[in-house]
Every structure is written in C-alpha cells, then in structure tokens.
Design a protein that fits this description.
Shape: elongated
Distance between the termini: 51 Å
Radius of gyration: 24 Å
Number of strands: 3
Strand content: under 5%
Structural class: mainly alpha
Number of helices: 13
Length: 270
C-alpha cells in the first residue's frame, strides 16, 4: 500500500483545481455586485464599438476602428501591412487614438497600431462602462478563469506522474491493473474539466457576461458573404452598416477584400 500517498496527492490536486475552476467560472458568469444591468440594459441597443468589445474584446474594437476609417477614406491600409493617415482630424476619442498610435509621421505598421489601440484610454473607458453595466466580464474574472484552467492542466499532469510513480512501487505479481484503476477517476475529472473549459470558455472566458451575450444574440448579423458583397461600395450606407456590423461580430474574418485582408492579416484570435 505504499502507493496510497500518490493516490491521495492525485485526488487532492484534482479536486482542489477543479473546484477553483468552477468557482472562477461561476464568478465570471455573473456581474460584479455593484454592477446591475437592470431592465434598461435589456432594452438597450448596442453601438458598433460596444458590440465589437463584447464579441471580441479590445482588439476587435481596434480592428473595427481601422476598417471604419478605411472605408471613409480617412486612412489607407496597404496590402503590405502599413497604415497611412489621410484625414488627421479624428471625429471621436477612439479615432484620435488611432491617429495618435500611427504617430507624427502619418504612417506606421498595422500591428503596432493595433497593439497600441488595445490599451488606449477610450477602449479602457469602453470596457469599464460595459463592466459597470453588467454586460462585460471584468479583467479580474477573466484572469482568474485563465489561472484556474492552467492549474487544472498542471493537476492533470501531476495525476499522470503520480500514477506512474505508484505503478513503479507496485510489485509486478499482483498486477498493475487495480492500482491504475484508482487513478482513472481523478484523471477523468481533470481532463473533462479541461475539455469543458475549452468548449464553453475558450479562450478561457467570453468578453460578454450572460446579459451581454443576450444583447449580442439579438443583433441581426448579415451572412458574411452578403456583407462582403457590399464591402466595395462606400456609397452604399446600408451595405456599409452591414459590413461593419459583421466585422464587429465576426472580426476581420468577415472581410473578403483581398487588399484589406492582406493589410489586417496579422490576426489576433478572432
């Protein structure tokens, strides 16, 4: 029975790590105590940038800003991956952040601009507003879920190592089968938690809270091919609205313009 301590270690790390992941997931699924979406939030219509944040986070907001300004001919996005300022007067704080991120020379690589926009003050303010309204998951909650997932992964590896150590201590005569069977349950527990986290919360947490997901579900998103057919006509306001809505919800995967896709080919996880 010298293998029993290995079994206790395996069960201990499995139960503790999976319990932490469950607590973190439950906390991420509910708004902060002071955040009350209330009935007004259920009736509110999301703006494009709010939709982009809830669907894809701050990087999606930056992509939408670049595509919007490109379509309005106030930026040039080259297929080589450079962005050039055409109109240096931003119409709101986010557009002014785009121009500031490009720099005084009026030209910059697209990846550098996208990285700067992800942490720009207008994007942070948008995130705070959505979290305060109970529509977005807070950064702390997302961090807790990500850390919990990593801990479950480490626990899964430790269960395997514990099982291997226990089997080395078991005499070959009785056979390894009964001992290995005791380690199957903690292994199944940790592995199933990782699978569920992958399916339900990849990449470890949604940006939108349940209330925010409900609002996203009410958005009439045009099919990607339909939105793309309108992508080449800036004069078609209805088509432009459809395309920008598709970008806000689907990300740059909704774009089929070869030059624009080439300019934004350095995808963040969409």
């Amino acid at each position: 029975m010298v293998w029993v301590p290995f079994l206790l270690v395996a069960w201990g790390v499995a139960v503790v790590s999976c319990a932490r992941l469950c607590r973190a997931a439950v906390a991420a699924a509910h708004p902060l105590p002071e955040a009350d979406p209330g009935p007004a939030a259920g009736r509110a219509a999301l703006g494009l940038y709010e939709t982009a944040f809830l669907a894809g986070g701050p990087r999606r907001v930056g992509d939408l800003a670049l595509v919007t300004m490109y379509r309005e001919r106030r930026l040039l996005l080259a297929h080589t991956g450079w962005v050039t300022v055409v109109d240096p007067e931003g119409r709101d704080d986010l557009e002014r952040s785009v121009i500031s991120a490009i720099g005084p020379d009026g030209q910059s690589p697209v990846p550098a601009v996208r990285t700067a926009l992800a942490t720009a003050e207008p994007v942070r303010a948008l995130a705070d507003r959505l979290v305060g309204a109970g529509l977005a998951v807070s950064a702390a909650a997302r961090t807790n879920v990500a850390a919990a997932v990593r801990q479950v992964g480490a626990a899964c590896v430790l269960v395997l190592l514990s099982a291997a150590g226990a089997l080395l201590l078991v005499p070959p005569a009785p056979g390894h089968g009964p001992v290995a069977a005791w380690f199957v349950l903690p292994l199944v527990l940790t592995a199933s938690c990782l699978v569920i986290a992958r399916v339900e919360a990849h990449p470890y947490s949604r940006w939108a809270s349940p209330a925010g997901q409900q609002l996203l579900g009410r958005i009439d998103v045009p099919p990607r091919r339909t939105a793309a057919r309108h992508g080449g006509s800036a004069a078609d306001d209805g088509g432009a609205d459809e395309l920008l809505t598709a970008v806000a919800v689907h990300g740059t995967a909704a774009l089929t313009d070869p030059a624009l896709r080439a300019a934004l080919k350095a995808h963040w996880g969409q």
